[in-house]
Specification:
This protein has two domains: 34 residues; 105 residues, Immunoglobulin-like (Sandwich), CATH 2.60.40. The protein has 152 residues and is α+β, with helices and mostly antiparallel strands. The mean pLDDT is 82. 26% of the residues lie in helices and 38% in strands. It has three helices and ten strands, in the order ααβαβββββββββ. It starts with 8 loop residues before the first helix and ends with a strand.
Length: 152
């Protein structure tokens, strides 16, 4: 069964053009969602997840050897990189291991990001202690590592 007027090529092309124009916004959204879904297929190849392997606040010995005001030390490990940080009252200092230049991105669950640079020695400073859960993404010439979520 044919639609009236579709035996005329010009009329058929006009109807097709109108149908495509009417669905173009939806088609763009579908394409965006498809692209986002496909980008996740290589996520494990693009980054390494570093797990928390040491937290000084969980050490019972800490109370006997450290005085008040000492910082909290956290170590995140994943081959080939590790990240060590010390949380002080007013700042966070850290180092990427093995030492080397890089960029540290502090991410929050709402998507906010703060970036700092690590020098040749791998040292970096966050001028403020972030509130709530955060994770660190470390980009170096050796690779990219993302830490697990933690409250500092």
């Amino acid at each position: 069964m044919t639609q009236p007027g579709w035996d005329d090529d010009e009329r058929l092309l006009e109807d097709l053009a109108r149908a495509v124009r009417d669905t173009a916004p939806l088609a763009g959204r579908i394409a965006d969602h498809g692209e986002a879904a496909l980008s996740w297929r290589t996520i494990d190849e693009e980054l390494l997840l570093a797990s928390l392997t040491f937290d000084s606040s969980l050490e019972q010995v800490r109370e006997t050897r450290a005085g008040t005001g000492e910082g909290r030390v956290l170590v995140f490990t994943s081959p080939p990189l590790s990240v060590e940080i010390e949380v002080l009252a007013d700042q966070v200092v850290g180092q990427i291991l093995p030492p080397g230049e890089g960029e540290i991105v502090v991410e929050t669950p709402d998507g906010a990001q703060r970036r700092v640079s690590a020098g040749e020695s791998g040292f970096f400073v966050l001028p403020e202690v972030p509130e709530g859960p955060v994770r660190l993404r470390c980009d170096t010439s050796t690779g990219r590592v993302v830490t697990s979520w933690v409250r500092l």
